[in-house]
Amino acid sequence: MSQAALRQVLVVDDEASMRAALQASFLRHGWRVETAVGAADAMTRFRRRPPDLVVTDMRMPDGDGLAVIRQIRALAPQTAIILLTAFGSVPDAVAAMQSGACDYLVKPVAFEQLERTAERILERVLRRDGPKLVRRDERFWAEKQGASRDGNPFVGDSVSLGGALARARQAAASDADILLEAESGTGKELLARLIHGLSPRRDRAFVAVNCAAFPETLLESELFGHTRGAFTGAVATKPGKFELADGGTLLLDEVGEMPLTLQPKLLRVLQEREFEPLGATRSTRVDVRVIATTNRGLEAMVAAGSFRADLYYRLNVIPLSLPALRHRPEDIAALAEHFARLYAPAGRPLPRLGKEFLARLEAHDWPGNVRELANLMRRTLALFPNHDESAAEIGIDALEGCALAAPAARGGDRLQAGLSLGEMERRLFEVTLDATGGNRSRAAAMLGVSLRTVRNKIRGYGLPPRAGRRRELCP
Question: Mean pLDDT throughout 331-360?
Fold first, then answer.
């Protein structure tokens, strides 16, 4: 199994022979394996050392796999989980997926099938929004810093972040679909989960699917499900993400990556709230609130013909955005301190962050946004000398070899004395449009003005058109 050498799996099954067989198979393929004999033992071992993957049985003497899944989801919502069951009915599958399982397999299961499923799930986890082992830690941000009453996991009190969160809270009270356009690494899924948690649907399922993680043929099945025999390899009926999210919220992550040929079917579901699973002869009705996210300018994609205009307008009922980290520099110190606490090795004093170190962080442009800062702090804490004294300080030398911008790198975005109010406004609109890749809806959301105002200012100031652009993540 590729990249499995450093991965940890927890196998939960009360049958000794099944545990031994799965343990031996995973060990042969380079995994670190821990086993548990039941639900209580599984949770004890999970709390002690959270794994990358959990493979759990459905029926156990002291509980069932659904209870294990729910408890794991409460502790670490992004852990990959596969359910093994001898009761391969659709209701069992729906219950498992709604509880938080990534997939389920019916016993007896060949290890080759389990291997393919585990590899697919972990690859999806890594591709969804960056390395998932980091994202699993992100879920603990609020716990590490003291969660707010509404469960807000975001760190910082900048005006731009506060405005985005205020609009998200307003949107949560509505049942309308949401289009969240923001750069990679800004926390789009965190915001989507916050909206779900504040909405009337909070007690129902939150289901996420990354539209970029599947080829077209598999994405249709992933979204709408399939019946047994619908295609080669469809050995059992499997519900899709829309069905699993019935009554709750469905996150369509990176919806801009959805193939054009599949977009009409998505449009119909959004309009009619019904669909036909692959191979089915009857429609399935669902009550789902859709939150679509993208790091690409969909308006520019519509103009280029790579995204349907009718689907764009159907998704864009409530437009939301998150500010890039370079547009909230006053939050960088708080985020750095937060990640220092989060990634500090256990049993060692927490070093202080020096003024020069923080000044260099605040001067950097952060193209990878909060995720890039998190990764840098994780590396910094991992390589920091093991000082015993509590007065240890992280200085500028800790950034040696890092390609951070010099303190003057962002000078072009700063205002200068003597500028007229008109010139200041022109520059503000210009910088905001640059940040959104020319997306006027996102610019309007960031500036707190109407889309018509943005259009009028573009025309009035003669600002040139900007093509949508996609920022790459920093390693």
Answer: 88
